[in-house]
Amino acid sequence: METYKLFLVEDDPAIARAIENHLVMWGYEIARVKNFDRVWEELAAFSPHLVLLDISLPHQNGFQWCEKIRKSSRVPIIFLSSASGSENIITAMDLGGDDFIPKPFDLSVLTAKVQAVLRRTYAFQGTQNQLEHKGVVLDLTASTLTYQGQRLELTKNDFRILQVLLENAGHTVSRSQLITRLWENDSFIDQNTLTVSMARLRKKLEELGLSGFVVTQKGQGYFVP
Amino acid sequence: MLLRYLKDHKRLLIALPVLSGIALLLFFLYGLPLDAFFYGAAVLLATALLLFVIPDFLSYSAKVTTLKHLQDILPRTLEFPQWTGSLPQEQLAALGKTLCEELRTREVQNRKRQDDLTDYYTLWAHQIKTPLAAMRLMIQSEHGPGTEALLQELFKTERYLEMLLGYLRLESFTADLRLAHCEARKIVKDAVKKFAPVFIYQNLELNLEEFSNVILTDEKWLCLVLEQLLSNALKYTGQGSIIISMDEKDVLTIKDTGCGISPEDLPRIFERGFTGYQGRQDKTATGLGLYLVKQVLNRLGNSIQILSSPGKGTEVKLFLHREELGSGIPR
């Protein structure tokens, strides 16, 4: 499997370091800008699959760099910025940005958005809206699960839970992380609802022969090995 | 005014009979015909009135009216007009002019001082976002036992920062205002999502009812109001739920099952710095949240009503209906 290369343009060292450490843990190759005078040159040399771009930078700002990059490249760009008014977001999109993450942000949001943009840009036709893991295929547009030829319809919430777990396959996702992700998708569930959903989801997976697909880590959360 | 005119010229008025008396006496002592005196006096009096007194009175009257008018508008304009008249009058006018200039200068200086301070705080608030964002990322990377609690405290800090930025932007409210037709539920969703971690941490339920009202408002200011109200509701609700609904008259209701507000405190909750019973209990209330909400709503032209049952909960009603003026607003 190809290792995706991410180019990080962020001038605050603490934030840059935290982002780098986290994304490296997720199996990405990260390069950070060394000289903020030569962002384009360093980017071109690294040839990344995706660029994470802060807006307030020394020398030229993120918008200016985006314009420069867009002159010769369609590489996906995700903006990160504390200047998050809607005018800034609109400008970012108009200049060719692919997404915008306002600061302060959660690492899980960063990971999810990076994954989404990479999938949109590089996944093969037909697999762009799919998540696959150990033979289980989630169709993100139809909200269905397919395994060994059998298709399962899931409720919106149950599907979303499974999607988050699959996006984080191999890593533990805490209950609060799960609930937060569902809230981001307008499902305002609480702890009880999550418990009920998990039970229902597991029962359905069992029916497909997938018992043990989702593992509970006591006190920590859930994960899909 | 005539009486006052006479009073102001009383020396002349007294001089008239006195001098006439002396002239009469002279005529008498010289044995001159007295009717010549009376005739002369009458002619002189008539001439005086016509050519001097009446024009003088008119000029006096005009000046009095002008100055009365000036009394009303000067405090606002601080512009002292040109003045011609007697030397003492012109000196007083010059004095008035000097004072007006001084006041204008001071106003400009104060304005600048205030703007400088606001600019500084705004810059500071933006600067501090960076270390806060860094802390958030670093805490999340740790996944320790204290992570959740730390993130809650960090969240509170970020909320206080948002409140400060809200205050600073109040100054330039009209310049900032952008009215548009918005889906009310979307704005509520945006506000509510920011508080997901708090709902989860405090294990509170959110019931966001379905409604499809479209209202004419400024999205970011309304969002600020909602965030502040949610922050309050969450702060004072230990268990239970928060229900958000909206009726067909565009009245948005936020209802919580919290500790409520006592009837003695209720009339004063929008006062600047008022912390009420609950606030003083836990020492974390600033008394500024609802004050900010009221300030924003006043400027938006929307009203708010708060009902509460101590021990049961609080209900906040926002009246978001706005009459459309004429046909100029495109849908």
Secondary structure elements and their pairing?
The complex is a heterodimer of chains A (225) and B (331).
Chain A: E1 5-9, H1 13-25, E2 29-32, H2 39-46, E3 50-54, H3 62-72, E4 77-81, H4 86-94, E5 99-102, H5 107-122, E6 130-133, E7 136-139, E8 144-147, E9 150-153, H6 156-167, H7 175-184, H8 191-207, E10 215-217, E11 221-223
Parallel strand pairs in A: 1-2, 1-3, 3-4, 4-5
Antiparallel strand pairs in A: 6-7, 7-8, 8-9, 10-11
Chain B: H1 2-8, H2 10-30, H3 34-77, H4 87-142, H5 147-170, H6 173-176, E1 180-183, H7 184-194, H8 196-201, E2 205-208, E3 214-217, H9 219-235, E4 241-246, E5 251-256, H10 276-282, H11 289-300, E6 303-309, E7 313-319
Parallel strand pairs in B: 2-4
Antiparallel strand pairs in B: 1-3, 4-5, 5-7, 6-7
Helix pairs in contact in B: 2-3, 4-5, 5-9, 5-11, 7-9, 9-11
Account of the 3D structure:
Chain A is an alpha/beta fold and 225 residues long. Chain A has helices at residues 13-25, 39-46, 62-72, 86-94, 107-122, 156-167, 175-184, 191-207; strands spanning 5-9, 29-32, 50-54, 77-81, 99-102, 130-133, 136-139, 144-147, 150-153, 215-217, 221-223. Chain A has two domains: 5-122, 3-Layer(aba) Sandwich (Rossmann fold); 130-223, Orthogonal Bundle (Arc Repressor Mutant, subunit A), CATH 1.10.10. Chain A is 43% helix and 20% strand. In chain A, helix 4 links the parallel strand 4 and strand 5 (99-102). Among the domains of chain B are: 2-77, no CATH class; 182-323, Histidine kinase-like ATPase, C-terminal domain (Heat Shock Protein 90). Chain A binds chain B through residues 12, 14-15, 18-19, 21-22, 82-83, 85-86, 103-108, 175-176, 179-180, 183-184, 186, 188, 190-191, and chain B through 126, 129-134, 136-138, 140-141, 148, 158, 189, 192-193, 196-197, 199-201, 203-208, 219-220.
Runs of chain B in which pLDDT lies below 50 for 5 or more consecutive residues are none
Give me the number of helical elements of chain A.
Answer: 8
Number of strands of chain A: 11
Any idea of the CATH class of the largest domain in chain A? Alpha Beta
Q: What is the CATH topology classification name of the domain at 182-323 in chain B?
A: Heat Shock Protein 90
User: Which fold does the CATH topology of the largest domain in chain A refer to?
Assistant: Rossmann fold
Task: Please give the largest β-sheet of chain A.
Answer: 5 strands, parallel
The CA-CA distance between the termini of chain A, in Å, is 18 Å
Give the overall silhouette of chain B.
elongated
If strands are numbered along the chain, what order do they take across the biggest sheet of chain B?
A: 2-4-5-7-6
